[in-house]
Each structure stands twice: as C-alpha cells, then as structure tokens.
C-alpha cells in the first residue's frame, strides 16, 4: 500500500511534538542529524505532519531509529499499517523489522507479512489467563520452592512464547514500566473505585484506555498471590552467597587447554561484511529539497552482470594518494581492504589516486609499493585513477547529456560563497547543448585554465561533498566492498547518486573509524611540516607514526597488524587508542623473536681485585630465556675477566631496603656470572666515581637479591664493542597535540637521546641493519641504517616496561 507524502509542516521540533514525543526527547533527537532526517522523512511518508496519537508516534520513532536499511523500499507499506493501527505494539513492529530485513528489496505477499506480524490477531484476557494458568501449572514445583524469589521474567517469557501478540501490560505488573494511569478505588483496601474482586498484592491497578475506566488485574502477580499468599519476611531476604566449589585438578594439562577461551582480539573482524551476492539491498537514501527521496540499490540485472564478471569473488581496493609517506592509519586501511579480500579468497587492487599531480612524486609511489609489501600484502593489480581518463571523460559527457552536469564559470571564491549560502550557480540551468559544446572546448584546451569547471547538478541544500573519479573507478573495477574511514561518510549520498544516474554498478560502501593514536600527529599536512622544517630527520624518523618510521624503529609488520586487528573494524569515531596498546603488541612480538644480549649504556668500571690479571673465563649466556642446555645455538659466549663494566645507575653510595643494585659493602649477582661485593670506591678530585673495586665469589654461595647486566673489559686483546644507542620516546608530551593551538611547542625535547659511548658484548659485532635484540633489563633495540662497519648504531624500539597489559586498557 502506498502512503501519500504531504508537504512540510513546521520545523522538525514542531513535527516531533505533534506526534507525541515529549519536548526533551524531541530536542535530543534534533541534536542527532541522522535521526532527525530519518524521523522527518518517516513522518512525511506516514502522512501525519499534522500530528497523531502518542502510541503511533512512538512506533514511528522506532521506525526512524531501527528500520532495516536494506528494506527502505518497503518502509511506506509498514507506515501504512502503523497509521491504520493494524500494527500497534512494539512486538508486532519488531516482527515486521525481522520480516522486512530478510525480504530486503524483493517483493512480498501482504498476507505473509500480516501473518508474520500478528495483524488482525486479537488476544483476549481469557486467552491470556489460560496461558498464565498453563505456565503456572508447568512450573508449580519451582514456584513453591522459590516463592517470590522466582524469576518472574522467565514466567513472563513463557507466556509471551505462547501468545506473542498479547498485551504485556495485562500479563505482568511492573510499576515503573507501564504507561497507563493509576486511579483510586473503593475496594476493601481503601483505594477508591469499587472492584468486582481484588487479588492484588497490596496494589490495585486500574487502566484507562480509550477514555474508559476499567481495571485489568495483572495476571502473573495475581496468580503468584493466589498460589503463595502474602509475602513473608523470608521472601524479602536476599539469598546467601554460596562458595563455589573448586574444580578438581586436571591431571593432563594438554586436555585442559584444548578449548581455551578465545581472546576478543582473536575474533574474525571481517564477519560484519556481506557477501557480493547480497549487494541488491538499498545502500542509502538521498534526500532532496524539491523531490522524493532517492533509494539507491543495484537492479538484479546489474548485479548479475557484475557477479558474472567477478565470478562472485570479493574485490576491494587500497587507494592511497601518492603525495606523502604512509602512516599507521594506512596500516588499518590496508588491513581492512587487503585483509577482507584475503579472508574471503578475493582480490585487492593497489590503486594510486593520482588526481592531484602537483603534490605527487615517484618517491612516494615507490615508498607505497615497498611498504605494502613489507606489511605482508600482495596487490591483485596496481592501477592508477588516471588509467581510466577516457572512461571518466565519456561518462562526464553522458552526465551532461542526461541533464545532471553543467559547465560553470564561477571562480573558486564564488563557488565557496554560493555553497555556504546554499545558492544555485547562475550557470546551472544553461542548455545541455551549450554545456556539451563548452566541455568539448575545455577538452581541446580552448578555454583558459580556471575559467570553466564541470559541476554536477546535486541539491545545493544538501551539505554533502562529492567526488567524481573515486566512485566511478570503484564501479569500473567491479569493487564489491568500497571501504573507507568515517570522514568520507558525508560523500556517501553523492557516491550513490552519481552511480545511480549513470546506471552503473554500485559497490557496497562501509565507513569505519579512523585510527588515532596518542602523543602523535597523523595529518599529512602536519607530518609534512615536521619533515620539511627539519623538526624530525625525514619521513622515516623513528619518532614518527609513519610506517617507514616504525619500520626503522624496529617495529615489525606483524605487530602492527596484530595491533590493528585487536582494535577491530567499528564505526566508533570518538576514541583515541593509547600508544601503550601498540607498544604491548610490539613487546609481545619481540619477546618471541628478539634474541637476548647485554649492553651497558652508561659504563662504570669495576675491578675484580681477587681475580688474577690476565685470567679470563668463558661463560655461557642465553639468547633465549627458556633455552635448552642441549641447544648450543641458543647460547653465546661472554668473557669474565678482571675488569667489567656495569651501568652507572646500578651503583649507589648509599644503600636502601628497596634498592637491589650495588653499594659499598653490598653484593649483587652479575648475570650469567658470579656474585660480586663492593669493597672500595675510587673518586676523583670532584668526588665523582671513577671506578668500583669488588671481590667475586667463585663458589657462588652468596645469594644476593639483585641481578645486574654487565660487559667485560678488554681481554685477550679484544675490547668491548663501542656502539651508539639512540633512545626514542613519545614525540609529543600531550596525548592529542593536534588539538593544541601551538602544537609544535608540545614537542618532547627528550624524544631523542643519543648515547655515543655505550659498550656491547663482542658477539654483536656482526649484527646487520634491521637485526633486532633485547638488551637485557633495558628494552628492545634494532640496528639502524646509519650503522657503518666501524660503528654500529642501535635504535630503541620499546622499553621492557608494559603499562598496557597491567592496566587492562
């Protein structure tokens, strides 16, 4: 059935009040543009711009907020049933949603729809009373045992299962939930109006539908009172908590771990996306100020042709602009598009959106291909938007012929002004033939640059922005899922409008939240400013959240992908992910893959006085904490000699209970070696510590609490390896520097600290660029590209401390 659309009547607030919304709900609704647009459209479709009763209004509000998007074409039919009160309860409306969602844009029989929604089904009080009696009979044992502690909701559910279309207000008392007026009665309880009988639990509820007074006893509560009588003190007591029995010990640990609980971050994030063959549903509604709503979807013929061309496979695309280096936000975009294609056995294009030649460089193109491969993704094909120039031109001509585009002569400033004022261009209604002629002159270079622009004839009252090339190339490449971040949601209407008026295949568009990380900036403009003004050392500076910077810092692509997967693919656009969460995934990865070694950043000389000069002991040190003693490759040799170096921070002149390092008269254990005890401290004229003298315990009977790392001094003509270490920290002090007016003033001056005199064990001498290690007690480090054969340079990837897992964030 069709519902006649009426002319607009008043402001949205007036419309919402007319359908019975209270003022607070109406004003809260207006604060949400999407719901406001939906509810306004629903009110007009329903033909109730002059108002309706509150029951109908509440159902209309539910339609505006919960109606299945894939069945918008049938919404007028549902509204007709609501206005005519054939559908009058929330249960019927939910059933209608379920039916229409499964039907989508396909036609259906009204008889089947009515049966599914309980249209015309009248449930009498006698029917309800009989169902309640049956439920009580079936559950009598439990009711007598639990008395008033029985879960009334379960009983109510059993009744609803038998009579899904019954009025829930009759079935169950809920003094805070019903919407009817409570009147006084004259019964024996002294409430006012006389009643034929009273089985209430101290309360008589008299309902007032259709202006007529009568009472309806709430049957479940009444039946409980009839069966159990008055409440006792015991009925009001809270049940005592019983201790849970400890499960018996599981002898076979392997069996216990066969079905572990799956962490949330391991769930498949791609389950939310539909299959290509489901792309016949309504994608979006395009609202116009002067004509009916346009509901965009693929016709069966268009979809069938698309599925034949693609063999039903998933086709996605990753479309970066080659005007800068990719950052961690692009890692999420790659994960979503390449990941979906891989998970469904489909294909993903790497498409360069080369529509702004002035900002593009081959350096950026080469970088993007390198990073895509490093991140573990393999493009199905590499394309450029410019590859489709001829098709884009021909479709522009067709757009003019169909009356949906025109040649405009406004300046950019005039276009901006007219857009803000929502005014049509004075050239908008020029003849089609004239626009075609001018467009041909533009193609041939006969019109001066900037003196003419081809513009689409979209509704100037709309706030939507638009692209031309993006959506058309998506269609030409048979993309099944066009995935992008939420800031592009405003272009959804124009995306589908353009494909609709050109009769082109329409991909499924899904917008997801962009990835924001604390203590950094993500905009290309700000990143470019930092690089070009030498605030950082290039696009791959390890402090930046560019993927080149993270790679140089030693972060693995698998850790980044695990981080992105853990965040999930949602539409929540109000959160910023803490940097600690990324660091957690980095540590998880490097803890498994980075071999251990020992490096001293700020060396302090220790002389072992009871070890003979020239004596050297070769000791085994572990590359892996759980290394088997039988696996020789899991160990490396360290030379223990008369001189060793420890961290300056591992020595104090004054000891304390909470300090486990070395102090005068105190012992510590040198990792993989022996306990040593400080016997003397040598100071210079400035009272600075020059060296420590200590004795070692060759028997290892001393059991100190503290364990420290160390590096051997010169022995066998082999000196400790001198290296440079760069300690990187957060680039900005504030969590969201982009919001600051002077964001550059927030740069952390300690974000890069260079230590040039660190000592490492000699076994690191052969480390190559990109090799990762855990420096024991210090953190994870990687060999930097600035290294030379004479001197290695290490970047700190992340410290050992893990705040994320401890806080559970």
TrEMBL record:
Keyword field contains Ligase: yes
Q: Name one GO molecular function term.
A: ATP binding
Give the Pfam families listed for this entry: tRNA-synt_1c, tRNA-synt_1c_C, tRNA-synt_1c_C2, tRNA_synt_1c_R1, tRNA_synt_1c_R2
Q: Where is the composition biased (Basic and acidic residues)?
A: 234-257
**GO biological process, alphabetically ordered:** glutaminyl-tRNA aminoacylation; post-embryonic development; reproductive structure development
Task: Enumerate the spans annotated as Glutamyl/glutaminyl-tRNA synthetase class Ib anti-codon binding domain.
Answer: 594-697
Glutaminyl-tRNA synthetase class Ib non-specific RNA-binding domain sequence ranges: 13-168, 219-290
Enzyme Commission (EC) number: 6.1.1.18
Please give the residue ranges the record annotates as the region Disordered: 234-259
According to the UniProt record, one GO cellular component term is:
cytosol
The segment(s) forming the tRNA synthetases class I (E and Q) anti-codon binding domain are 707-784
What catalytic activity does the UniProt entry give for this protein?
tRNA(Gln) + L-glutamine + ATP = L-glutaminyl-tRNA(Gln) + AMP + diphosphate
Domain Glutamyl/glutaminyl-tRNA synthetase class Ib catalytic per the UniProt entry, residue ranges: 313-463, 466-591
Q: In terms of domain of life, where is this protein from?
A: Eukaryota
Please state what class of enzyme this protein is.
ligase
Which of UniProt's keywords are assigned here? Aminoacyl-tRNA synthetase, ATP-binding, Ligase, Nucleotide-binding, Protein biosynthesis
**Cross-referenced PANTHER family, in alphabetical order?**
GLUTAMINE--TRNA LIGASE, GLUTAMINE-TRNA LIGASE
The UniProt similarity line reads: Belongs to the class-I aminoacyl-tRNA synthetase family.
**What is the name listed in the Swiss-Prot or TrEMBL entry for this protein?**
glutamine--tRNA ligase
